[in-house]
Specification:
The complex is a heterodimer of chains A (116) and B (111). Chain A is mainly β and 116 residues long. Chain A contains no helices and eleven strands. The relative contact order of chain A is 0.33. The chains are: A mainly beta (116), B mainly beta (111).
Chain lengths: 116, 111
């Protein structure tokens, strides 16, 4: 099946620094990528949807200036958490879809961010 | 307001028995439903799906049933195995790639 990777898998940073998380589709072209944040004992929360070559669409309540998303190619999307704070500590998961319309999303393994 | 609900946060089943995970939704316009399986510290992986035009889809030990009138879907795992122990998310979609997830049900299969 389709494979989506994320890098890094685990990151610890100091408060106030920025962290970049990469999401790659390894064996297919992802026209759309999604970024989720998972809270303990809660479902995935969709943060934003990015289409290759265009600006990301952010969900209500998600600060676009804080969570910068770039989808520069059909195989790579990045999420940059700017000026990270301890409350940003979470598990961030991306998923990718190969084409528009109702389709399965292939999820990456996730990135655990810990902000000290 | 939660559009996709998994009211049972956990389920414990003996190995070899049937596991039934339930999911309810509120939007009758949803046209595609999926089940994901998630192990700790990993992203959820796709398990099985069903279109709203069907009421059953089977893949090996996994069967998903859809009851549109009740806005309810369920995932049956028969026979259950210890390796099935994980958190299961149901999700619904409406004409787009955007998925709305339930809160998940933790399944534990014991010997």
């Amino acid at each position: 099946g389709a494979v989506v990777s994320q890098h890094p898998s685990w990151v610890i940073c100091k408060s106030g620094t920025s962290v970049k998380i990469e999401c790659r589709s390894l064996d297919f072209q992802a026209t759309t990528m999604f970024w989720y944040r998972q809270f303990p004992k809660q479902s995935l929360m969709l943060m934003a949807t990015s289409n290759e070559g265009s600006k990301a669409t952010y969900e209500q309540g998600v600060e676009k200036d804080k969570f910068l998303i770039n989808h520069a190619s059909l195989t790579l999307s990045t999420l940059t958490v700017t000026s990270a704070h301890p409350e940003d500590s979470s598990f961030y998961i991306c998923s990718a879809s190969s084409h528009q319309g109702t389709d399965t999303q292939y999820f990456g393994p996730g990135t655990r961010l810990t902000v000290l | 307001d939660q559009q996709v609900k998994q009211n049972s946060p956990s389920l414990s089943v003996q190995e070899g028995r049937i596991s039934i995970l339930n999911c309810d939704y509120t939007n009758s316009m949803f046209d595609y439903f999926l089940w994901y399986k998630k192990y700790p510290a990993e992203g959820p992986t796709f398990l099985i799906s069903i279109s709203s035009i069907k009421d059953k889809n089977e893949d090996g030990r996994f069967t998903v049933f859809l009851n549109k009138s009740a806005k309810h879907l369920s995932l049956h795992i028969v026979p259950s195995q210890p390796g099935d122990s994980a958190v299961y998310f149901c999700a619904a979609s409406l004409n787009t790639d955007k998925l709305i997830f339930g809160t998940g049900t933790r399944l534990q299969v014991f010997p």
